[in-house]
Each structure stands twice: as C-alpha cells, then as structure tokens.
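Before surveying the methods themselves, it helps to consider a single example record, giving the amino acid sequence and backbone structure tokens:
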Amino acid sequence: MLVLKDKKDLDNKYNPAVRTSIPGPESLKLLMSQRRFESSAVTYPNNIQIAIKQAIGTYVIDMDDNTYIDFLSGAGVLSLGHNHEKLKEVAKSQLDTLSHGLDFNTPIKDEFIKAQISMLPTNMQENMKIHFCGPTGADAVETAIKMAKKHTKRGSIVSFQGGYHGCTNGAMSLTGLVSPKEDVQNNMAGVHFFPFAYCLRCPLGLDKNSCDTNCANYFTNSLDDPNGGVEKPAAIILEIVQGEGGSIVAPKEFIQKIRKYTKDNDILMIVDEVQTGCGRTGTWFAFEQYDIEPDIIVVSKGVSGIGFPMSFIMYNTSIRNWSKGSHIGTFRGNQLAFATGAEAVNIFRSEKILENVNIQSAIIFNKLKSELKNCSIIGEIRGIGLMIGIEVIDSNTLKRSQALARAIQKECLINGLIIETGGRNDSVLRLLPPLNINATDVSLAINILCESINQIALNEKQTKDSAEMYYEI
C-alpha cells in the first residue's frame, strides 16, 4: 500500500498521473460494493468514478494508485487540504482529553468561540452570539429560520431562485432546485421565491448591460405592493455567492438594496455562508465585501479546516425569544472540531491564508481568461476568491450544456484533476481548491483544465452525440 507521510514526500515522488482506466480495477471493486450495499442517493461517485485510498494536501490517491489534484476539497469542507499536519496534531491531542461534550462548556470550546467571534468585522464582534446546531449546514439553516420566526412572530420566509440551503425538510423547501421536492409532499409552507441577480441570463429577461438592480427592485416593489400576494416575511435567506447554483456572484448593489429594505422594514436577513465562509472568498465571510451586517450568519463546511462536522449560527443579540431548550441537538459538542477549528484560525493568521486565496485567485482568473478567451463552448468565467465557476455552453445554441460539462469533467479526471459540476443543468465547472494551495499546484491544475476544455471544444459534436456513454460502470 502506498503511504505518504507528508506533502514534501508527495512533491518528491508524484505529479498528477493516471495509469489505468477510470475506474481502475481496484476502484471498480469498491464502487460495485457501494452500489450493492449503499443507498442509490450517492452522488459524487456517479461522475467521479474513483474509490479513494488516501489523500494529503491538494492530492488524492485512488485504489489503483492514480494520483489527482483535488479541486473539489470535500465540497469546500477541506479548507486547508487533506490531513493538514498541525490540525492532525491538535485532533490527536484532543482525543486524549474529550471528544464529545454535548453543550457543556470546555476550555477548547471557549477558545473556539472566541476565535470565531474574532474573525467577524470589528464593529460586529460585541453584538453577536453563537448557537451550535447539528453537524450539517442544513441543521444551521433550520435553526436560523426557526429563530427568525420565533423572534418576529411571523411565519413566511423569502428565498431566492438558484439558492441551495440543504436537504432537510425546511432547508430543501428554501432551495431553488425543484427536482428533490417533486416526490416529497408537505414541504414547509410560507416560502416565497424571488429572482437572484444572475446577470448572464437575467431572470427578468432583460439585457444584462441595462440592468440597474432590477431583481432587487422587483423584490422591494412586490413586498410593498398591498396587492402583491406576499405577506411580510420573518426573514429573507440568501447566499452572497450561489455555490451549488453555479458560482454566481451577487452584484454589490443587489445585496445592499435588499439589506436596506429588510433593515427599514424589520425583516431579518439571514446570510448562508456555509460554502462561502471561513475564507473561501478571500475574506472570512463573503458579506464583508458588500458593506452589510446580516442579522444571522449560517456557518458550516470549512469551520474545522480538516473535515470534522460542525455547524452554528451567529446572530445579533437584539434577536429575542430564544429560551432554554429552544433548539437542541446531541452532536453540538464536537470537541475535535472545536480544537481543529480554533487552530485553523491561528493558521489562517500566521500563514496569511486569506492573502494566498486572493493571490491564487488572481492567477487562476488571469490564466482562464487568457487561455479560454476564444473558446466557443465557454459562456462565462465567474466567481470570487477560490470559489470559481465556468459555465459551459453549446457553441451553436449558446444554451447551457450538461453533456459538454460532463465530458470536460471526465477529461480532467483522465488527466489527473478532480473537479465538480453544478449550476442549472449541471453545466458549470466548479473549482474549490484548498485555500492554502501553492502556485505550483495551481499551475498544474489550470493547465490540465484548460487543455481538457480545449480538447472537448475541438470534438464538440462527437462529444454531444456520445454523451450518454459517459460514466457507465
């Protein structure tokens, strides 16, 4: 069995290298076992057909010893890459002390809380509290909407088209994607959807060059209209950057106009930072780049830095009616996540991770725009920080193309790069590398990506005709 002790060991011996078919014979054995014994709701192995032996830093090694650069990073969970040495050390140390503590306070929990509060903008730190939820982002979303309803004594919530907030009943009801809801009856009532500023394909059908926060105007006008059909909500919930929706970055004016309206009309603003939080966009939270202060912040994914489950909300102390036992959960006390999460904050500061995010982001965007500027199947390159999306289109119709996006994903995998697809029709290539990624790995990955895209563009018609043949075991 291949054993890698640290990133230096990996650098000395390995580059992205795929020596077998995908899936290779050893990966195929585990994939077939998974198909036999595990729920058919499995997603990632359907399109990234590998079984993982081990991983370190930015690299993943499959059961056939194929080596890949990982630009998925556990869907953004592994903010400091796989098996970070310092985080492993503190996790091992914490195991000797306490691993699970319900909601009892402990020294490491207190340290974690203070570390998280310290990452807020200075003017917010004195006015925010933390509430720990269950282990997932969806749990934190459920907590946030429950808190908003209790505080305002109103029952409806406004969400935005294209947003993703989770798979639990309430969170799914707030999610724009229709397909998960189709066979599930009695979704949460009182949810109203409004257009999100997806300017490449304006949801209001307007020319993107003439838009002047029209989506925000539509929102405010509808809620002001006494005959508009939407009662005053308890809260609105949105992502500053829609992740699963296709890495769509909200215009600053759109967010600011909505925030002003909610503040003026006593409507809570919940910002879902599950994917954008903990440095992914180049600031600790994405909302910091928009000059706003949300009432409630939803946090999860990258909190522990190494993949231990954790979620919480931060909320303004002006929010009341949150009494003893209002919202509980057995797995609120993950001491390993507290330990690594507190250490992750130290690493972000000492190793200037946010600075690295912005440096590597600029390199990636410059390279993509240079190499793909004349590529006929690229509709838009967008994103912020190390949360990047590339919308893939049919060169003839200019419509989103799932077939081409899937083909690019497979071509990347064959050449040693793991990426995910998302957005409407799964037509967006999504890049979520570790936030501490170095320039060498960035260069290797983006070269593979650009070569793969250009290769598929050359064979566009053949690729579309054979799309149904991809990813069959």
About this structure: Residues 86-350 form a domain with the Aspartate Aminotransferase; domain 2 fold (CATH 3.40.640.10).
